[in-house]
Amino acid sequence: MHAITRRRFAVCGVGLISALGLPNRATSAVGQTVSLSDGAVVPAVGQGSARLGQGRRPAEEEEQAMSTGLSLGMTLIDTAEVYGGGKAEQLIGRVIKDRRDQVFLVSKVWPSHATRAGIQESCSASLARLGTDHLDLYLLHWPDRVKDLAEVVETFEQLRAGGRIRRWGVSNFGVADMERLWRIPGGEHCATNQVPYSLADRKVERAVLPWCVQHRVAVMAYSPLGGEGASVLRNPTVQRIASSQGRSPAALALAWAVRSGSVIAIPESGSVSHVRENAAALTLTLGTDELRQLDEAFPA
Ligand SMILES: NC(=O)c1ccc[n+]([C@@H]2O[C@H](COP(=O)([O-])OP(=O)(O)OC[C@H]3O[C@@H](n4cnc5c(N)ncnc54)[C@H](OP(=O)(O)O)[C@@H]3O)[C@@H](O)[C@H]2O)c1
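Above: the input record for the complex with NAP. Below: its predicted structure, written as tokens.
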């Protein structure tokens, strides 16, 4: 791996692509996309679901929000068996019932289930709740408390061979975890690493993000608006830049997160109007001046 100094990464806000020789950002009819290492192409902005289907809003409203997101091109949906004890997956199942083929569906297995039998069982239960026969991507939710990572890889590969998942990845893996994974036979088939990444939390830029870029592992940015309550959107600098450009703070924050072409942001919202703002990021490219101002306000 090439050494990447912090100084080199300090220019990331403006020059992440040129600094690391990343693939050029691609666009489709619905906006920016990210290519996975096996050639699959996904939208650069998808939809999270950690708190959906749990009574925060009427279920129909949340279903309408997610359905609107799908229509606007945010066709990657991220979920997990633990979200609401399966309720998020059930809500998604209702939303995608008649449009499964339009969706790139991601779910996750919790570490305490990450044994050969546990993963098989969790995957079957997720598929049943989601009302589908396959996941497009299946992730190990956390590395901690996983007894045998080689067994996890082997089981993921078996699920892939059997067609129940199209590919697999990890979440919350640091560089040491990724290096450990790469030493396991088949570990290099890992398609993505899902980690926290937002203007307010740029920690992954130090090591995890460059490692993933160099090993062609797409990064999924969770909590891209700052997590529950979307703190990034209340930041005065974000609000000022967004309003001076006639953009929503959400579109600005998400366009920033996916600016490199290697990152997929998965904001969550149960509100149709918020989803519309988030989807606008798919077609928004930030200018050098905006990126510089954001870098100054949120140093790497
Ligand atoms: N792998 C992991 O360990 C992990 C951990 C955390 C999250 N995740 C995944 O990442 C997804 C997103 O992360 P997150 O939910 O923590 O944080 P987030 O997407 O940064 O923020 C979600 C919050 O932002 C609000 N919001 C969304 N769009 C908005 C807009 N345009 N304007 C104003 N507010 C807006 C949402 O409320 P409204 O509903 O009111 O819009 C919600 O309170 C999760 O749903 C989950 O799928 C994964």
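Notes for the reader.
The pocket of NAP is lined by residues 48-50, 78, 141, 171-172, 194, 222-230, 233, 250, 266-271, 274, 277-278 (CB under 6 Å).
The first helix runs from residue 6 to 10.
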